[in-house]
Amino acid sequence: MDSKDNGEGLKRVIGVRGLAITIVNNTIGAGIYALPAVVGVQMGASGVLAYVFCGIIVVAIMLCYMEIGSKVTDSGGSYVYVEKAFGPLAGFIINWLFFFGWGVLGSAAIMNVLADSLAVLLPVFLNPIMRGLLFFILLGTMAAINVTGAKNSVRFVAYITVIKIVPLLAIVIFGLSHIKTSNLRWEHLPTLHTMGNTVLALFFAFVGFETSFSSSGEIKNPGKTIPRGVLFGGITVFIVYVILQIVTQGILGAQISTFKNAPLAAVAENIIGPVGATLLVVAAMISCLGNTSGDVLATPRLLFAGAKDGLFPKFLAKVHPRFATPYMAVIVYTALIFIFSVSGGFKQLAILASCVLLLIYLAVILAMLKFRKKADPSAEKTYRTPGGLLVPIIAIVSIIWLLANLSGNEILSTAIFIAIICVVYFLMHLKKKVVIN
Fold first, then answer.
1. Does pTM top 0.90 for this prediction?
2. How far apart are CA 140 and CA 146, in angstroms?
């Protein structure tokens, strides 16, 4: 029953554990290897407060996703939530913002971080041809795994997640005995301005969970699986981040600014010597691989869902006759990541990512509020966020506050990108009218 067809030709094979693992994988990325220094430099030992404050914001957004995700169970995640609430134009904008502005460009950036990390150990990967070959092999392997079934993809992501979590847990376990309590004393409370800057930096280390919702058409019993998977995944990420911050601050103390590019590598070297720093470089590479593999699992479902709705070419809605996966969407998506990875052109566009994601969150929360107003006889069987309007209001106010802290260039670039998307949408509809007439 759990693996039966969902009506789209896909099979529901992702359970609570699989969803939680993908959330942990998609959230904990290469940024964690530098994050403790960012927080420590700005706030010192009181940096834990920033994690708590940021955690409240992210939990509020997660709860909104949990509610709408338990009600709208088609493939597409953020796109399908907004499209069903506000219509095709809004859905078209969100789909493009997510799959291209956040997905393709973000994964292309991560692949280059992976290659840069590998080049530290093997300088041959500074060569553009060797980097291109590396990208082709890794992305080709991810595409093949995803085409052969969502269950295989989740299993692969699970293995990668375990591999990249182990070094982080080792730092925690072996680092506890190296902590100096004097490094954890709070000298003073942070100012509101300092807290704001730190939370903004932290926020983007907590995002990534929303990518897992793009595979909603392949999640078993979404009404129960989504809330539980998000809960377990979110708690795991929060605990890992906070403990790593405490251990890093406790070991490095005031010297944390000296190692601002690689604080965890410095901690590993402090614990087990030079080999520790090398192991952390490898762990960072694996983390990058895990993030991209999770993205390749989830985001092609946006193309698949958009193609079914006529927003993209129809061939992207094809389902593999044997494996029941959106294989053309997977192939096209990984090809786009490859193109932007080797071209390097994404660097100028990557500035869109932070603003793009905040707008996606805002649109999804507004969609959730609209769905609440609809009379739904099955509403009692789905998850409803407690506290009435309190949680969505916290989420909306937080998003607006974070948007206000972004640079003018980020906001302007995103506005131009959205304008281009709207022009493309109207040109497509104009072409359809001409063909019909």
1. no
2. 10
Q: For residue 1, what pLDDT band results from cuts at 50, 70 and 90?
A: very low
DSSP bridge partners of 219: 14
Contact 139, 338 (CB under 8 A): yes
Residue 85 structure tokens:
């609430």
Q: What is the pLDDT of residue 129?
A: 93
The amino acid at residue 192 is: L
Question: Which token pair is 211?
Answer: 């990518």
Dihedral over alpha carbons 342, 162, 124, 100 (to 10 degrees): 10
Separation between Cα atoms, residue 187 and residue 196, nearest integer Å: 19
Q: What is the sign of the dihedral through the CA atoms of 19, 13, 154 and 326? A: negative
417 and 95 in contact (C-beta within 8 Å)? no
126: part of which helix (H) or strand (E)? none
Q: Find the length of the chain.
A: 437
Q: CB–CB of 305/96 below 8 Å?
A: no
Provide the CA 227 distance to its chain's centre, in angstroms.
17
Q: Are 168 and 13 in contact (CB under 8 A)?
A: no
Give the lowest-confidence range in 62-76, 155-169, 294-308, 345-359: 345-359
User: Could you give phi then psi for residue 220, rounded to 5 degrees?
Assistant: -70, 140
Residue 260 CA to residue 38 CA, distance in Å, equals 7
**Cα separations (Å) of 136 from 130, 356, 433?**
10, 27, 40
If you ran DSSP here, which 8-state letter would residue 432 be given?
Answer: H
Q: Is 303 in contact with 333 (CB distance < 8 Å)?
A: yes
Paired tokens of 12: 């529901």
Would you place residue 330 in the very low, low, confident or very high pLDDT band (cuts 50, 70, 90)? very high
User: CATH class for domain 16-407?
Assistant: mainly alpha
Question: Quick check: 366 and 421 in contact, CB under 8 A?
Answer: no
Phi then psi dihedrals of residue 280, to 5 deg: -70, -30
Structure tokens at 41: 């430099």
Q: Give me the phi and psi of 254, to 5 degrees please.
A: -65, -20
Q: Tell me what the mean pLDDT of segment 48-75 comes to.
A: 86
- SS3 category, 299: coil
Task: Considering only CA atoms, give the Rg of the chain.
Answer: 22
Asked if residue 363 lies in contact with residue 414, where contact means CB atoms within 8 angstroms, the answer is no
**What are φ and ψ of residue 273, in 5° steps?**
95, -170
Contacts of 383 (CB under 8 A, 6+ apart): 66, 67, 70, 223, 226, 227
